[in-house]
# Entry
Amino acid sequence: MIPLRELDTYCGAGGVARGLTDAGLRVVRDECGWPHPIASARAAHWEPGRFASPNGHEYKKPSEPPVPEPDSGARQAGLLLAGSPRFSSGRAWPLSSAHIRSRIALSASYIAPRRHVRPSRVMRPGPGRDVLGLGGGRRSSLEVRAVAEQLASDRASAGGGAGGRNVTRRVVVALAAVLAAQALFALCLVSALQLLAPRNMPFGVVGSSKVVAAVTSKVSLDTIGYADKSAALGAIGQGQLYGAYVTGSASDTLIVVPAKSFFARIELEGAFLSAAHKLSQPVTVQAAKPLPPSDPVGAVVGLLLLPLLIGGYLAAVLVFKAAGGTAAALWRVVILTGYAIVGAVLTDLIAGPLIGAYSSSHFWPLLPCFALVTAAVVLAAAAIQGLAGTLGTLLVAVLFIIVGGSGAGGSGTFMLPVYWRNIGRVFPPQNAVDLIRNVLYFGGNNITTPLIVLFAYGLAGVAVISYLNWNRPARQARAAARARAEVAEAARAGNPRANPSGPRRGMLPILVALAVCAVMECLFAVNYMSAGHAPKAAGMPFGVTGSSPILTAAEKTFSLKVTHYRDEAAVKDAIGQAKIWGALIPASTAGTPSTLIVVPSISDLSPLDIAAQFGHAAKITGQKLTVQQYAPVPLAKKDPFGLVQSLMLIPLLVGGYMSATLLLAATGKAAGRWRAAQLAGFAIAAGLAVDLVVGVWLQGYASDKFWIVWPICTLIIAAVAFVAAVLQKLIGAAGTLLTIIVIILFGNPSSGGANGVPYLPTFWRDIGPYLPPRNGYILLHQTIYFSGHGTTQALTVLLIYLAAAAAILIVLDLRRTEAQVDTEAAEAAAMAVPIGAAP
# Structure
């Protein structure tokens, strides 16, 4: 079958030509004989020449087409004629010029096959022929693309052809792109955060000590000598050190800095106390810059980065889409800078006064920091889009979200692998983290470098946009001269002037886009901050084998759900089934210590929390207590804190909804005969890819778990993908946005992550069981470290999501008429939030 071709004798602003070209048709020739739509398009900041003349033809007066009126021979040749009725058919249909002007431009397309596709406006000039009346411009391009794709599909179903092959190629390319992005995301996120440990960490030393020598032989510290303790504390106050060791005459002092890094404090305190114990050296631990009760684990800084980074990226992407792909315009600098300020105010109000993640005294110092971070991201992103067009959106997502976000260093930049720390230094996220942390906890000291980098990104973005807008004089001069001539010709012909309200009307989609950005940024700030800024255990599952004053004292300050067991063996059996998170074995005889069992593989936080709470209870009751770690399956060497499952969950969720959305964009349909099979096939391939990256390459869990982890990853991806496909079928491209809200903005914060469900506030703890993320995390984590115990409910919920979504999708395909889908809106939704959040 001959591939479809198109000849447009009245291309107006070029919308039809663009739509047909996007759909894979070859535009043989296009001419424009009416200057008014071109002038109107340019007045609305849309350059029509890009689409009206894809083959480089100049605009011409209308002329008779160089082909005969469409007849059976033309239909057999696969020719699609477009243009005004007078010039495309050789005769004038009874349409007044006012009727034509009301649509800006009229295009009539003769559709050859008998199965006609009819958009909203259809005229029937004669028996057996349908004429599609399409408004000119950008909307027309979207309508015609859908029409042409349906035409190609009809032709393929009648005997194959280029149209079917084009759709198949687009589907393959779309799914391959999602697969590559998902694998890259998993690689970056897990490799950056799976093995947190000090690496060339700045550490102060006062005097000489064998303890320091013993620690530095095992821990990577960059030791800096100071004259005395006050000098070391001064450097800590400047935000320059992660800790210090002060040698004393009778006892040494270890100074830790929780505000610099919660995980660094754990590592340093454990290493120095262990070395001092072996050398019989008394050591006192002193905390400088302690974390406030509103931020006990130092999570606030990383949680603040999320809305600022995502808000800036989202504003750049959606404004670019709303402006019709116009990136190089100075008005965007003003709009995006204004949004950065508004977004900063919203985030500051939510995190500070509303949630109380930090004291009100920090509201004003943090506000300009938030505005600078968002402005740097959004202006740099707009500049990249101006240079690379639509491809720039993908570049921004990779550079700022996937790569930059992974190297942000929310847990401490010197806890990252060296290469990730160095990569992160050149991107906004790490500099934003350093700026916010030092303003919040170190009095604004040591912020010169972050300010320079962030201002450089913002100013570079403004410079690039200015260059693209003003420093191409020849092109601008030709466009201006052509526009003036066209407007003058239109006036002489009695046509009305280009509507001066066009630009104002063009602002409406931009304002809507910014409103969506503001809502999403607020949701990120509210949901993630409220769920994770101050984890406090409630109803912690805990086992005992008898009564103890230590337990009585601990329960006064620590919320426990206590279960009694007959002996230590029964306790360890319950731990192996993931029923309890710790246990107390009271002393059998007076004077002997009780044993506290903690489980490092069940949570990154609970072993420390349980040990601290019971250690304090033992101290106030005068009892002896020893702490014992027990893990049915030991943590992987490359996952000492048990973070890998929460890290790999995010690429699985994001890949699920993006696969459904890019299929929507590639085919122009929310569903189809093979949609379920395509999504299922992608889930299998993507599950394998993530399993290979995380399990085999990065060794995030034992190799013997490879074959069981693969189907779990596949199930999680498929469940999210099918849910997204159903919502897209029901409400179009907006279904992607709803999927993101449900899965990423509500599901992910309620998963519990590496901390665990007991550390969630009541609201998040209650909604989690009904959403895929928590069930996906539990299924992954319990399978790897607890031999599959405690996974029945999680597996059942995910299977219900998958089966129900598949059934609904099939029923909708059979009973619901397929509506046209705005594929650009679908693409914008897919690229809007490529990352849900870093744990």
In short: The chain has a mean pLDDT of 80. The first helix runs from residue 15 to 22. Residues 255 and 286 are 5 Å apart (CA to CA).
